Amino acid sequence: MTIFKELINIWKSDDLLSQAWDESIEMLRFSEKIFDKSIEAIHSNKSKKEIKVLKQKDKLINDFQQSVRRKVLTHFSVKRNNENIASGLNLIDIVVDAERIGDYCKNISDLSLLLDSELNCEPISDQIQKIEESVSLRFDKTLEAIEKQDELLAKKLLETYKKTVTDISDKIVDGIISNKIQINNTSQSASLVLYARYLKRIGAHLKNITTTIVNPYDKVGYVVTSASFED
Question: Which of 21, 79, 206, 224 has the fewest CB atoms within 10 Å, measured from its CB?
Fold first, then answer.
């Protein structure tokens, strides 16, 4: 039985941790909504007022994180049982990553506010669209893997992370900085570099959450090789 499955069993037997689990899932779903709205904002002519309202929603993500931390800490303080402490730490790691996703979504909103118009992704619009779609899909699949405790899906997400997120972002950033990708507008050029990096970091935190399903606690946040999965 994986650490994550043990974690679920523990939470189901304890009201306080059950609440923490529910809040964690709700926090991830809310983060996904903020992500979708942030992507929409940077590609549209939304008013600055609308974008500022979106940024303020980040506080709700912070509230979720603090609530989960309190519940986990209270559980272990009251129970005085350290046997399953790694499981509690695992849950806290999940909400920390979800909070960081919220921060990067806020960065995207900030970028929208700084731009005079919507982000012009030419001549790399295809690459930008690919990484946007990949990260968006990873939100759905990460939630599905966690809720269903689907280890096969989790492994697939981890094994495809580099190709569908990291490599695309790095190619965009390296291309612009090395001038292999030529963009005449300096503002748009800098914005595309930042945007590609923000998307990569959001994908990385989703990856970290996925590792809680298949990795022991000391390897949470790391992608292990296929050979390691088979051991």
Answer: 79
Residue 230: how many other CB atoms lie within 10 Å = 7
Q: Contact 21/11 with Cβ under 8 angstroms?
A: yes
Query: Within a 13 Å sphere around the CA of 62, how many CA atoms are in the beta-carbon half?
Result: 7
Question: Looking up tokens 């990856």, which residue turns up?
Answer: 207
pLDDT at 136: 96
- State the pTM of this model: 0.87
- Two tokens, residue 184: 């005449």
- What's the rounded Cα separation, in Å, for the pair 23 and 132? 26
Kindly report, residue by residue over 25-58, the tens digit of the pLDDT: 888 888 888 899 889 889 987 777 777 787 787 7
CATH fold group of domain 3-230: Methane Monooxygenase Hydroxylase; Chain G, domain 1 (1.20.58)
What is the C-alpha to C-alpha distance for residues 21 and 173, in angstroms, rounded to an integer? Answer: 37
Quote the tokens at residue 192.
């595309």
pLDDT tens digits, one per residue of 120-158: 899 999 999 999 999 999 999 999 999 888 999 999 999
